[in-house]
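Archive record:
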Amino acid sequence: MSSVDPAIEKLNEATSLVVLILSTISIITGGIGLVFNILVFTRAPMRREPCAVYFLWSTLFSLIYILILQPVRLLAVSFAIDQANYNLAICKIEFYIFYISRSSSSWLIILACIDRYLHSSTNVHRRRLSSIKVTKLSISVTIIIMFLVHVHMLVYYEISFSSDQYGNITPACFGRKGTYRTFIGFWNLIFYSFCPSILMLFFGLLTLHNLRQHRLIIPNRNEPAVRMRRTDQQLLRMLIAQVLIIFIFTLPISILQLYQSLTSSTVKSTYRIAQENLAGRLTSVLTYYAHSSTFYLYTLAGRNFRREFFKITRILHINRITTAATRGRTTQ
């Protein structure tokens, strides 16, 4: 046994442990938070806000990503239970849905940013585009586009043999070696991380510009306008927080995948493979937090969101008391 073997073993053990801990935290806290998101965004005051409807649908895709796909990947990474490495149909479908769900969640947030820009515009024709009717149409078109632009994964994802973190040759579900694997690295960097973040930032800045114009045009003593402005500012803060989290947590995995694609033909030692495996697992887990942390961001950034959430907790508390009292009377 070579002198590097103990180091590789420790690195692999650390990888499995860290992924297990971080993924479990993400699944539990993210699952609870996303369910609360749905409860808040489906309340009547929120359903009237186009931006909140985008948040709701983004949450639904994040829920699929966190509560269905993340546990599947956790079983694969920490317990070596991964049917995608042995069944071609599962390989293609799993990663197809994996990428659609997380991309859809991010691009729906972009639509929310565009909606805030339109809603805050001084141009009446642009403001009219911020409506529930336009929102539903935009969501439908975006979802269809997400399914179409990821079709290439159903064609080019395959089971190939490569070295694992122990240096053993094992089957794994990856994009086809060569040009496509380089393409998928650039694809993730541009389509999932860089491009959404840039578009969110761009429309966020335009919205801020619109809000400054409103301050000059509309006097502060106009109470309805002030309330509308406060709501806009809260939704904008929620968007900004979401943009920062998406950028921070998705950029590392995109850069790493691009690096791995560009070095796929390089002969690597088992220790380097183990290091890249650790980096890959950690950056992959970080992407989950971009989707599982939304409830906590919204709670911190949006007063209206907190208000609706507290109403829900009070309703749940009252229902629990009522149920307990009813049960008490029936047992007497």
